[in-house]
Amino acid sequence: MNAHFFLLSSPVPVERLSWIEECLKFFFVQLYPESLTHRKTAESPLFSFFLTGDALYSLEDPETLQVWNIILSFTSVRIVCDRQELELRGIGIGPLQMKYPDQVIDTNSPGPDNKPSFWKDLAKAARQSKPPFPGTAGWFQTGSPYMHRSAWYGLRFIAAALEEQLSAELYAYLDGVHIGHLGQRPTDTESISEGLIALHEQATAAGLDFLALACGRCATTRGYSTWDDGQGAVISTCTIKPFKIRDLSQMIDRFLHPHTILSSDAGALQLRRQSATISFDRAENPSKVPPVTILITKHPYSTEIVFGAVSLAVACAHAGILTRVIFLEDGIYAVTGNHVTSPGSAVYNIQDVINTVAGKENLHFFAFSPSFQKRGITKTKSLNAVLDIGYPGLGKIFFYPPGNVQAEHQRVLVF
């Protein structure tokens, strides 16, 4: 696995690139100051950004391009672009590539069809062990198929992982549960469900494991029916065969394993044991499980995303995983103002939810002060369990190994 990497596929606002820039400054000054003065040309980049989808537009937008230029001033940073997605969108990165020829990459490894495969490059970065040793890669899907290309990206990543002789796991959450619905018959694109079936067959033929789990609560909410066969097995009557609807806890059990788990916007950040004496927070008990850091960037009520992110965080913490939830960008609206729901309303109050779960073992809440300052608002005073952090605090959460944790890396999921 690369030392540190992020996958970005959604639109990248200037605000996001700005806090990434500041965290990288913290990273290099605090942990790798030697890289600011010299770096061997044969050395692998310390930090890689894999860009596909709408994130690629940030490479030609004048505002975001200005920040990328600052980020690329660190010679240990590289950007790996999805060649096929660049061509699909007609995006040109020639000037940026001429300026940073060794850091801006748009030539991907050849896939099984000999076409450039961005996903193969990503699968190689996600591998925890060198081949031929076995390994696993996971994909966390929250968006519905067809409406969102993230489902297609998930299939491409899983296919690339199998090509790299990695067992593959798919975790379907929120609208992601639709990815395994039976009877998908699109007329103008490939069938996502048939793609999953093909991947399951490919894994079986190669002697690799393939697991596809859907959150039971999310599936039930959306009308997926299940029944118990009397032997403790839950059978879905409306999903493809490889797709299993299970309690969220069974999905989180897979998070207890050390493999890389990505989503359409996610990161895997290596934890340096050399800095073990420095920690920002700590797990309740000694653990080798990778910590989970959840970045909440969306408004709280228009979609289920914020509630789903907090619910996932609670489940991870309950399983003994050190879990940090950070409200930033538009996510800070979840922790500002006084949220009031009318008596008997079915709408959840996200602030009540936070206050209810605050204080649970292994669960820490943070709010990013620069996001408040940008909008001229402040955090709700009653949310004492949500700690304010600035750029240094965010950098410490990302790059300092937390106390009591002996994992090799931490997972970052963006909601």
3D architecture notes:
The strands form 5 sheets. The protein has a 10-stranded mixed β-sheet with strand order 4-3-2-1-14-21-16-17-18-19. It starts with a strand and ends with a strand. With 415 residues, it is of the alpha/beta class. The protein has 13 helices and 21 strands. The protein is 31% helix and 22% strand.
Strand-helix topology:
Elements: E1 4-8, H1 14-30, E2 47-51, H2 62-71, E3 77-81, H3 83-89, H4 94-99, E4 104-105, E5 109-110, E6 116-117, H5 118-126, E7 136-141, H6 150-163, E8 167-172, H7 192-205, E9 210-215, H8 216-221, E10 226-228, E11 234-236, E12 243-246, H9 248-255, E13 260-262, E14 266-270, E15 282-287, E16 292-296, H10 305-318, E17 323-327, H11 350-357, E18 363-368, H12 369-375, E19 386-389, H13 391-399, E20 403-405, E21 409-414
Parallel strand pairs: 1-2, 2-3, 3-4, 7-8, 7-13, 8-9, 9-12, 15-20, 16-17, 16-21, 17-18, 18-19
Antiparallel strand pairs: 1-14, 5-6, 10-11, 14-21
Helix pairs in contact: 1-2, 1-13, 5-6, 6-7, 10-11
